[in-house]
Specification:
The chain has ten helices and ten strands. By secondary structure, the protein is α/β, with parallel strands linked by helices. Helix 3 runs parallel beside helix 4. The mean pLDDT is 93.
Length: 314
Amino acid sequence: MDNLRTYTSTGFKLIHHPDVIQRMKLQKRIMPISLQVAPTSRCNLNCSFCSNANRRKHEDLGLRPLSLILNELSRLDLKTVEWTGGGDPTLYEGINEIIKVASFCGLEQGFITNGTLVKQVLTRDSLDSLKWMRISMNCLDYVDKIHLPRFKGTLGFSYVWNDKTNPSTLERLQIHVERYHPKYVRIVPNCQATREEQEANNLILGEKVSQMGKPYFYQAKHFDKPDHCWWAYFKPFLLHDGFVYPCSSVVLNTTSEFTFHKKFRWCEMEDLPKKYATKSLPLKVTHCDHCVFSEQNRLVDEILEPADGMENFV
């Protein structure tokens, strides 16, 4: 299987959850599979392309309410949690404690970080609890090198091609690849772009990255406006402000002001489990002109409303 389908969020993975699909078809209810959590707004870097640049940089989720939410969602058969930004999750004071709570709840865990503080902050128990860790190698736009701990899970690198990208940065990225042997290196475009600019970026960068060889791969980002938003039910995004958003990409929309604007809020953290108690209704997409999950949403449309009785004619 290719890296794009294995290591990125795609609709293909839904086929591995027949119980969720069956409930969708019979009850019109979508149950959570994965929860993304940005536990803190604090960060020790200031990336020029940061899509959450206009945030308050002193917000943290409470350890106890976050623990309660993980427990409640695990009872709804939530399977995974991803610790992300943000901020950077290594700057969340209770990060080791909450990783332990998630393990106790039986959740598989992933961790997204700029990598600069992983070795100092995460305990060995926390590291061993993570199924995967993805390092944002844009840290090399600001520091010469990072030191990563031993890690038995799947290690991946990600790099956003941006205005600071230069041959020296790419050389240092390759040095780290040769030192730590990540399973993959994902290159993505800077999503602070118009739809036209993004399509041009996809063509140019796709060609460049294809010449870099393994373990590099390019993930194109296509902006669209979906007819409906369902993806929030499968993979809600819990932000450090205590609100749940449809996804981590609402900041890309043209009227978001490069922040998680209140108009995109789905519910307060403690109300999230209630969203799964009744028939699922699509979220409003009025302001979502730069959605990157349109294909996933169209797939759910097809599951919920099959093609006029023709679905068996594959």
